[in-house]
Amino acid sequence: MPPAVLLLSGGLDSTTMLAYALHHGFDVHAMTFRYGQRHAAEIEVARRVAAHYGVKDLVVVDIDLRAFGGSALTADIAVPRDRPVEEMRSGIPITYVPARNTIFLSFALAWADVLGATDIFIGVNALDYSGYPDCRPEYIAAYERMANLATRGGVEGTAPVRIRTPLLDRTKGEIVELGRSLGVDYSMTLSCYDPGAAGEACGHCDACTLRLKGFADAGASDPAAYAHPPSDARR
Q: What are the chain's domains?
């Protein structure tokens, strides 16, 4: 089983990606981040998901992006609620955390170099996404080129880096369908930007809206716990 580093948040996308990587025979080493995010409940969800799938290594990296702010996820800025999907596709929203995927991939790259792993999995999505610049295919391609100039394995050719993005060209509905075909239990996942004290999803932020749309498009019900799901999501 070839080793791989996988960025795991415990959300719909990263959990589906974990099931996909395991299905394709990778020995997954998972990494999640405590970066000062308001939805820090995702860390325990990531632990739960990793344990469910028998992932032996889960590293929780502590960095504090609140020092910079600039995002509704790391500063005292309201999380947008009940935005139409069409609006999400225009402009970069306030929930964008500056350079977050670049920071996360840099930590994953360091661990992959130590492990001798050639594959790094990240659950970015370029179709049903919230306008984040670091979720685009051209960003991933550029990062992969840089990674192979920056690591021992890349320079020596012993472990050339591949940034794996199995969800990049899939809609949220297609991601749900993929996960269901792999037997993913979505009741244990959390995608919300502003969850309640008990870890229940708000049902109104952009992440919840896209997730609920994905389940609706897949003709399925979302089994996750919601505090106040929109009425048209009760399917």
A: 3-186 (3.40.50.620)
Sequential pLDDT tens for the chain (235 residues): 999 999 999 999 999 999 999 999 999 999 999 999 988 899 999 999 999 999 999 999 999 999 999 999 999 999 999 998 888 877 889 999 999 999 999 999 999 999 999 999 999 988 765 678 999 999 999 999 999 999 998 899 888 999 999 999 999 999 999 999 999 999 999 999 999 988 899 999 999 999 999 999 999 999 999 987 665 543 3
C-alpha count within 13 angstroms, C-beta hemisphere, residue 52: 19
What's the half-sphere exposure (Cβ side, CA atoms, 13 Å) at 222?
31
Residue with tokens 């399925």: 220
Cβ-based burial of 112 (10 A; exposed 0-12, middle 13-18, buried ≥19): buried
DSSP codes of every residue in 211-223: HHHHHHHTT----
Distance CA 31, CA 129 (A): 22
The first and second tokens of residue 88, run together, are 């999400």
**The pTM is what?**
0.94
Closest CA relative to residue 153, chosen from 25, 3, 21, 24: 3
Helices 137-150 and 100-115 cross at an angle (nearest 10°) of 40
User: What is the three-class DSSP state of 166?
Assistant: coil
